[in-house]
């Protein structure tokens, strides 16, 4: 197996931040199952993307998979299929042209420059989009699966990551949606047992709508709040305790209007009882402060996608080259 692997270690300093790397593209799967919702209409779920992987005891790292899509796909929901215990965050993205194909070694920075379609973490439940909404992947595009592996067991694991999509048609997806991250990578959580916060967000140039939210933090995270301020009036979209083993989507019954030049702000809270101050990073001992937001209209990917609402990344102050993870490679 080809992967970036690193032993579990505590890391500090903003130098451990976002890693730039190449990668693009991925996956169309096979297989699936059918379920019948209460209305009697049968719904079909197929594997959209998958990869098998092996990881040694007490190890952590990233692996990726990419594959070209043969025909147009319309997806009206996503779910993880029997996620293994050693699977942490997963990201499903789309690109028009790959930098590599099939299975390859990667890191968290691989997500940069691609359009985000789905993300999940420990205990993430399925998401089914409301009528008319869904993801469209065009024939010839490439799906890219990025998997954060974290094996805390004393034995090697050989497992598979599978993302399933609820099958739709062009008529089912009249409003295509995609995802954007909002938040910050400027995180400082001193090891004093007290609550500390990190805050970040953006003022979009164009108007849109928000469909669903997914808070993304790690083991020190205790709470996340998302506020949207329009003309001096603030609406709280999310205000919830955070459970790192049950990371769940919040879907709105009515889509939230997100006007241009409004202010969206994500506030993450942490309590650190470890041996050292923690910061943002790509390994499990570091922290995240993101909210993954489904929105429309979709936005064509560019250099900083899908982090356009994370100003610390867009400003490029905290971007580091890929040798940060490469220096920690094992096996």
Description:
2% of the residues lie in helices and 48% in strands. It is mostly beta strands and 331 residues long. It has a single domain, classed as Jelly Rolls (Sandwich), CATH 2.60.120. Strands 2, 3, 5, 9, 10, 12 and 13 form a 7-stranded mixed sheet that branches. Strands 1, 4, 6, 7, 8 and 11 form a 6-stranded antiparallel sheet that branches. The longest helix is centred in the C-terminal third of the chain and has 4 residues. The N and C termini lie close together (9 Å).
Task: Summarize this entry quickly.
This protein is mainly beta and 331 residues long. The protein is built from two helices and 21 strands.
Q: What is the number of independent domains?
A: 1
Task: Tell how many strands the DSSP assignment holds.
Answer: 21
Q: What is the name of the CATH class?
A: Mainly Beta
- What is the third-level CATH name, the topology? Jelly Rolls
What layout of secondary structure does this protein have?
Elements lengths: L3 E4 L24 E4 L7 E13 L3 E10 L4 E8 L6 E9 L6 E4 L9 E6 L6 E2 L3 E6 L4 E10 L5 E12 L4 E4 L1 E6 L11 E8 L5 E9 L4 E10 L2 E9 L8 E9 L4 E9 L18 E7 L14 H4 L8 H4 L5
Parallel strand pairs: 10-13
Antiparallel strand pairs: 1-4, 2-3, 3-12, 4-7, 4-11, 5-9, 5-10, 5-12, 6-8, 6-11, 14-21, 15-20, 16-19, 16-21, 17-18, 17-20
Q: What brief labels describe this structure?
A:
mainly beta, Jelly Rolls, 6-stranded antiparallel sheet, disordered C terminus
């Amino acid at each position: 197996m080809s992967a970036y692997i690193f032993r579990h270690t505590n890391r500090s300093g903003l130098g451990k931040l976002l890693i730039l790397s190449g990668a693009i593209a991925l996956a169309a799967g096979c297989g699936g199952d059918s379920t019948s919702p209460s209305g009697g209409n049968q719904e079909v779920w197929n594997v959209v993307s998958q990869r098998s992987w092996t990881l040694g005891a007490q190890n952590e790292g990233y692996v990726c998979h990419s594959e070209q899509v043969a025909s147009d796909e319309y997806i009206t929901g996503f779910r993880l299929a029997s996620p293994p215990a050693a699977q942490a965050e997963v990201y499903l993205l789309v690109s028009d042209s790959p930098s590599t194909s099939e299975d390859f070694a990667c890191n968290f920075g691989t997500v940069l420059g691609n359009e985000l379609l789905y993300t999940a973490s420990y205990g993430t439940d399925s998401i089914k989009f409301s009528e008319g909404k869904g993801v469209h992947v065009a024939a010839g595009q490439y799906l890219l699966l990025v998997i954060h592996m974290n094996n805390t067991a004393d034995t090697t694991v050989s497992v598979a990551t599978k993302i399933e999509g609820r099958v739709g048609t062009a008529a089912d997806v009249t409003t295509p949606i995609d995802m954007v991250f909002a938040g910050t990578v400027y995180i400082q959580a001193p090891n004093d047992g007290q609550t500390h916060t990190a805050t970040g967000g953006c003022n979009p140039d164009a108007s849109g709508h928000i469909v669903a939210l997914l808070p993304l933090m790690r083991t020190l995270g205790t709470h996340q709040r998302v506020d949207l301020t329009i003309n001096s009036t603030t609406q709280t979209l999310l205000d919830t305790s955070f459970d790192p083993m049950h990371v769940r989507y919040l879907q709105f019954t009515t889509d939230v209007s997100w006007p241009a030049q409004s202010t969206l702000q994500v506030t993450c809270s942490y309590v650190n009882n470890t041996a050292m101050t923690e910061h943002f990073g790509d390994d499990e001992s570091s922290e995240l402060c993101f909210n993954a937001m489904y929105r429309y209209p979709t936005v064509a990917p560019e250099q900083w996608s899908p982090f356009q609402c994370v100003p610390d990344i867009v400003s490029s102050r905290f971007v580091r080259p890929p040798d940060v993870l490469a220096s920690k490679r094992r096996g």
